[in-house]
Design goal:
Blueprint lengths: L2 H21 L12 E2 L12 E7 L4 H14 L6 E7 L4 H15 L3 H13 L8 H9 L5 H8 L2 H17 L6 E4 L3 E4 H4 L2 H24 L1
Parallel strand pairs: 2-3
Antiparallel strand pairs: 1-5, 2-4, 4-5
Helix pairs in contact: 3-4, 3-7, 5-6
Length: 219
């Protein structure tokens, strides 16, 4: 084995071990590990439910990997959970993807396009950051270009895109994917160490908030 091949082999071994260590890292949720507290807590849309906000960006490979894990969780989430997807906009490109999300939502096609947005950007390497390119992409999903253009530039979509730009600051989110539980707790891959832990932390905090909500309701 040449020195160059040996160095490559050693490098790959180190990377493999590092990834394994990260994936197997345990956290003690009951001791406050795996999440951060939001101060001050933010109001929720429905005080009668436990709110779960997912911050994501279609151009984020980490979000792409977390998405199927989250979607699996969503299928079995308790009925007292109010799930809110929140496209995030830290810059102009992110804002265009957020605008695309809200356009699809307003047109009633987000359910069939959400995964395709991820696939197009992450796998097919399409940028989808220009209006004409997005118009073609929507057309491929059965949306008339006129309907796309009118909705893409509508007041509703503009307002929601501005919301996507402001939301991270409101909750102290500095990266994605991130999940906010009931306006009080912030969970991310950084705080929880890996995606499986993120789900565990979410479940713990949701149960905690639901117990507090139930206790308040009983009173």
């Amino acid at each position: 084995m040449t020195i160059q091949k040996r160095l490559v082999f050693i490098f790959l071994c180190v990377i493999s071990l590092s990834i394994h260590a990260l994936e197997s890292q345990e956290i003690n949720i009951e001791k406050g590990e795996g999440y951060e507290t939001i101060d001050p807590p933010q109001p929720t849309d429905d005080p009668g439910k436990v709110e779960v906000i997912e911050f994501f960006w279609y151009g984020c490979p980490h979000c792409y990997r977390f998405e199927p894990i989250l979607q699996k969780w969503l299928k079995t989430r308790p009925d007292y959970v109010n799930y809110i997807p929140q496209p995030t906009a830290f810059n102009a490109t992110w804002a265009k993807h957020a605008r695309a999300y809200y356009t699809a939502e307003a047109l009633g096609v987000i359910d069939k396009m959400h995964e395709d947005f991820f696939t197009a950007i992450q796998i097919d390497k399409k940028r989808l950051d220009k209006e004409d390119v997005l118009a073609d992409f929507f057309a491929a999903h059965g949306v008339k270009k006129e309907d796309f253009t009118n909705t893409y530039s509508s007041f509703l979509v503009e307002a929601k895109t501005r919301q996507a730009e402001a939301a991270p600051g409101r909750y102290g989110v500095t990266g994605v994917p991130a999940v906010v539980i009931n306006g009080k707790y912030r969970v991310s891959g950084t705080t929880a160490k890996n995606y499986d832990n993120m789900i565990k932390v979410m479940d713990y905090l949701i149960a905690k908030e639901h117990a507090a909500l139930t206790k308040t309701t009983v009173k």
